Amino acid sequence: MAQKVATRMTSDGWEIVDTSGFLHLIGPLWQRQVDGINEYALVAEDKHHNRRGLVQGGVIMTLADRSCGMTARHVSGKPHMATVQFDTHFVEAGKIGETLVSRPHVVRTTRSLIFITTEVKVENRVIAMASGVFKILKSE
């Protein structure tokens, strides 16, 4: 099954993002560029289910937070960011087997903060809306 998913994602232009830590446990995380905009995806597997058999909300939040954070790093050119605020609104349930896609949008940047929003979608169906504030950290 995993090979079939990987083949489909690769043929649609997705590449696996190199991850570690917590994200590595819930991944793989996929990335591609469409019309110059980065998109991020996670294919919901059985390991992502909640007690109702749907995608656990924390998985959706993690995809939204990580994709917005990666976008903040890309826009700022800085390697270190911290999420200082993140709001998520769940609109509809995600189902196991579906591909969840986040396409972050930068709202505003300052010298130290980046404001970003995203929708997590399954095809044309919005399952969550999120917005975050990311702090640019000084290099150590």
Topology:
Blueprint: H1 2-11, E1 15-16, H2 21-26, E2 29-34, E3 37-43, H3 57-76, E4 81-90, E5 99-102, E6 105-109, E7 113-122, E8 125-136
Antiparallel strand pairs: 1-2, 2-3, 3-5, 4-8, 5-7, 6-7, 7-8
How many DSSP E strands? 8
| Strand proportion | 35-45%
CATH topology: Thiol Ester Dehydrase, Chain A
Radius of gyration: 15 Å
Kindly, what is the distance between the CA atoms of the first and last residues, rounded to a whole number of angstroms?
42 Å
The biggest beta sheet reads: 8 strands, antiparallel
Question: Would you state the CATH class?
Answer: Alpha Beta
Global geometry = globular
Indicate the mean pLDDT. 91
Q: Which architecture per CATH?
A: Roll
Structural class: alpha+beta
Give the proportion of residues in helices. Answer: 25-40%
Please report the number of helical segments.
Answer: 3
Report a brief summary of the structure:
The protein has 3 helices and 8 strands.
Which characteristics define this entry?
alpha+beta; 8 strands; 3 helices; 140 residues; globular; Thiol Ester Dehydrase, Chain A; 8-stranded antiparallel sheet
Task: Report on this structure.
The chain is α+β, with helices and mostly antiparallel strands and 140 residues long. The chain has one domain: Hotdog Thioesterase (Thiol Ester Dehydrase, Chain A). 26% of the residues lie in helices and 40% in strands. The protein has three helices and eight strands. The longest helix has 20 residues, at 57-76. The relative contact order is 0.18.
